[in-house]
Amino acid sequence: MTDKQCPLCGELNPDDETICWKCGSSLDHRESVDLNPEEHQTPAELVDAFRKFDLETGQNEEVEGPSNSFSEGETFSPEEDEFWLKRMRELSLGDAEDSEDFDEPDHMDISDENIPPWLKAVDPTRKQEPAAEADEEWGDMRFDTSSGEVSRFSIESTDDRQEEKYAEISDELSEDELPGWLTRLTRSHVSSAEEKEEPAQEEITPTSDNQDWLHDLIGAQGEAKEKTPDEESSILEGGQAIQDVGEQGEAEEDDAFIFSLFSEPEDSAGGMEGVPPSEEEIEPGAQGFEGFSDALTSAKTEEVAFSAEEKPAADGPVQDEDESAEQMIDWLAEDQPASEPSDTETGPASEAEADEALGETYPEFPLAVGEETQDWSQVMESLDITESAIEEELPNWMSLQNEIMGEEAEISPEQLPGGEFVVDEAEQEPSPEMESAFEATMDSSFAASEALDAAAEAEAATEDEKVPPEISPDEARTDMPFKGEDLLAWMHDLREEEIKKAEGEGSAEAPPSKKEGIPDWFEEEEAASQEASEKEEVLERGDLPTWLSAIRPIEAVIPEDIKQLDEKKVEQAGPLAGLRAVIPAQEDAIHYGKPPVYSVRLQVSEKQRAHAAMLEDILDAEGQAPAEKRKRKTKSQYILRLFIALVILAAAVLPYFDIAVGSIPLNAGASSRLQAFSTTIDSIPQGATVLLGVDFAPGYSGEMNVVAGGVLARLMSRGIHIAVISTTPTGPALAEGLMDQTLSKMPDYAAQYAQPDWYINLGYLPGETASLKEFAQQPRQAVIYGMKAGLSNALVWDTAGLNGINKISDFSAVILVTENLENGRAWIEQVQPMMNDVPLLAASSAQSAPLLQPYVQSGQIQAILAGLPEGLVYGQQTQPAGSQDLAWSSYQNALLISILVILVGALVAGVISMFTGSKSSQEV
Amino acid sequence: MKKTMRAPIAVAIAIAVGLVVLAGYFIPWTPLQNIQTVLLSWGVILVGVATLVGITNLVIVHIKKVGDKKAPDRYSILLLVVFAITLGAGLWLTPGDSGFQHVVTSIQTPIETSLLAILTVTLAFAALRMLQRRKGWTSVLFVVSVIVFLIISGGLVISYESMPFVGGLITFIRQIPVAGARGILLGIALGSVLTGLRILMGADRPYSG
Asked: Which of B130, B159, B174 is the closest to A906 by Cβ?
């Protein structure tokens, strides 16, 4: 929430506030002001009218005035001027529209009708001096409520207009209309207007014309008080400032006079003429008038004199002229806050006291250096200005003001807000009640202001001391008006009260003013003064700073309850009987209670239960094998696989039905490998014994029977003894079948090799590799009985074919018939090293031929006969033709069909994959 | 004897015997070779006994399967029956009886031969779908190699081996598998040596010592 800045004093206010807490001006008032008093029904409205003057521009305009009063380019600041005073001035000026520098709002209605005659008559410029002298008078002050500045407009350019205005005023006003005292005052001012010596001041200083009267006033009190040079200079400076203003502007003596009267902040009694606006209507310009007002108020002669004469009567008795003068002095006295109008003597003592009081509290009235101050009372006396005269000569507009303010009776100017500065002409002498009330009010204001000063000094002197009490805006408003920032706070209070009265919030009690002609604001001020006095006694406790609260004794923060609690308990027995706040020894010490029982049960939360159940499920699932997901095989795969099988089978079987007989010839010109094997076999002498190792699986018997059969046929044809041994359990049986198949093809040799001397089956050697080693080292010990020995206990080595065979190297050759690498490697590794020069031959299948080829190349195997084709070719040499053709055809057909199936299937699959892959890529 | 005691003894025996047998291969010392021969004989006997143990274990397992109440295996009964018959016949007829040999050859040989035939069809079918399953140059190379070697090793071009250029080409192509075989053999040899050393060092204990 952003703060609002007061247009009058510039102080920041909360956003929800409508009235400045400092000066009491309206924060939102931007309306135009109609200064026609007749249109306003209440003084508050009139004051509003004054305050609303010229709110649009928001800037002070420089007023061309006396050169010695304002430095060029400077304008009034809100603190230096009072808006209402400016308004008054404008009223006196009448029509200011013709002014070139002064932009008067249209709503301004400063007509001659509104200017009282006496005011017009006061203006010495109009009466006695030509218009040129008006330059020395007060210039037109223009107060801008938006910016809070008071500007001076050029008077020189409006001299003609002002002169006419003044002339009009003066013409209107006759000697009879003007109050006598006022007339005499103006004359005195004119006489002293020549003496001027003003240094450049920012404050308003009287003009040359009015300075005289001012100087007279000041000089009247100069004997009473010996001012210090500073004070004198300040006073003189103030006076010079005023003079400068008057020189530059119109410098109406009447305005200056009125202005000076209204600017007395301390003492509300004995006010001069004029309708001071209420507090809330005072624009910042009024605040800006602080310096000037302070300067004016420091003019003790003026205040004292006028106070003595013009102090309003609240409830006090009616006083004569002397008494009033004394009262004026009294309320001007600074050190006499609640002074009673008892001192009627206006001697130098009282005046001196008053001067001292004023001098200590308020700055000196800026007068020109050298100017002597005069006793105000003396001046007043010299002028024969009596209160009654003043009251009688109250101008009509003043009385009109009284009507506006809603007074039943005609309110004297003193009764008006700020009426202490009003010189009531037509009013009767101020009643004692009024005077007392006024004094009380002023005293309270004095007291409040002093309290503020004291507080400020205390705060500035020591930071460790107690925080000075904060003064609320209300309190500030009750301070002496025209005192620094609280210039017109009291006016705000008065305005609020007026508003309340207008709304019908009138109190039951008839205000004394109504009864006795005392304005309400007197009572209000009295009450405010009482409150201020009370508050002075009991300063509000402000917020302690952090550092101060830290060192604050503990007793200050101990709550009362605790204190009371401790205090209530009084020891009844024992040596401490009767004492308070004693630590109980026995009451609370012995207290037996049941020990707490702790539950043994495991406290498990729901979350833990869930986790435990989850872990249990996981553990249970460990023992169960997951169900396998069966892949659904398509039927097309079964069909295709069956087709392939049938095709291959047909290709293999058909040659036996003389269908699709293979046309590829089996070249007799065998390869070198075949020739080497053939050569080796042929090198075996006849009648030798050859060891045939039969180590192939029954599943390979079809191929191996063809390959091994040819070798057996060759050996049989050469008349070589054949000993068969096997390291596989089925080997001896397979060897028997091989022998029978070969003999079936060679029936001539069937009878010979049916004998156990030509074909010896040594049986099965268990232990695979180890047995071969043993057999290789000691064959007679490795094999004792043959496979056909049976239960006869005939030794196999006793046959004729194995005569002279004691070790492996006694055989003429070793022919290994195997289809796998392991068996062949075992024979090669275990037997071949023991064979010395005995050739080791191998008849293998096509799948193991490449694996045994290295052994052939290394010389461990002398020759190798690998695969069906080589076997068939080798068999053609020994076996009769025809039998191999069917085998070759079947093999050839099956092989070709297999090759064809693989080739075609691969091509088709590749093409299909190409199309499917392109589709998938397109989809992506 | 405790397991803790058997373990080092078995290992020691295994290592000693292995070292002696190995030494007999390299040291031509007759006594050593005689010991080697003796140890090898014992090993042969142990292998025979292990075969009997295996057969016995096989029978026992199948007997248990037959006697299982939850999931009895009917094929185990057949096995046991056939085993019994074969055992009885063998003991009665002796392995040298041609009739008993015909039983073996007439049953064992067709069964295994049929399995090889099924393998042939399966391999042909797998080669046929290889390009469809695995796309790439390796699949194409495999199919091509299969066809080439089926042709060359199948003897379909054996008539052309005598030709000067074709024969040399065929011979060259035949040497390609031999090169691969050599690699395989070397690997096997090295593996065998390493395995033997591990046993001799006691690292491997296939005898569960």
From this structure: B130
A286: how many CB neighbours lie within 10 A of its CB? Answer: 41
The answer to whether position B157 is within a domain reads: no
- Which residues of chain B are within 8 Å of residue A906 when distances are taken between CB atoms? 127-128, 130-131, 143
Residue of A nearest to B98 (CA): A736
Find the range with the poorest average confidence among A279-283, A614-618, A740-744, B79-83.
A279-283
Residue A162 carries which side chain, given as an amino acid letter?
Q
Q: Give the pLDDT band (50/70/90) at residue A812.
A: very high
Q: Residue A313 in contact with residue A288, Cβ under 8 Å?
A: no
Whole-complex ipTM: 0.89
Phi, psi dihedral angles at A12 (to 5 degrees): -85, 130
Q: What's the domain range around B87?
A: 1-93
pLDDT by residue (tens digit) across A15-40?
Answer: 888 888 888 888 875 544 444 545 54
Which residues are CB-neighbours of A94 under 8 A, at least 6 positions away?
Answer: A110, A111, A112, A114, A115, A165, A168, A169
d(CA A350, CA A357): 10
Query: What's the total number of domains in chain B?
Result: 1
pLDDT score at B84: 92
Rounded distance between C-alpha atoms, residue B173 and residue B161, angstroms: 11
Contacts 24+ apart (CB under 8 A), A889-893: A889/A655, A889/A660, A889/A661, A889/A662, A890/A651, A890/A652, A890/A653, A890/A655, A890/A656, A890/A662, A891/A652, A891/A662, A891/B154, A891/B155, A892/A662, A892/A664, A892/B154, A892/B156, A893/A651, A893/A652, A893/A654, A893/A655, A893/A660, A893/A662
Distance from CA of B131 to the nearest CA of A (A): 5
- B3 within some domain: yes
pTM of the model: 0.48
pLDDT of residue A68: 43
The pLDDT value given to residue A132: 45
Beta bridge partners of A813: A690
Q: Which of B111, B125, B185 sits opposite A851 (nearest CB)?
A: B185
DSSP E strand stretches across chain B: none
What does residue A915 show for φ and ψ, rounded to 5 degrees? -70, -45
Show residues of chain B in contact with A727, CB under 8 Å.
none
- Is B110 a member of any domain? no
Closest partner CB to B40 (pick from A732, A773, A790)? A773
Largest CA distance in chain A: 190
Q: Does residue B180 sit within a domain? A: no
Residue A552 has pLDDT above 80, yes or no: no
Compare A29 and A644 and report the one with higher pLDDT.
Answer: A644
- Rounded CA-CA distance A308/A630 in Å is 125
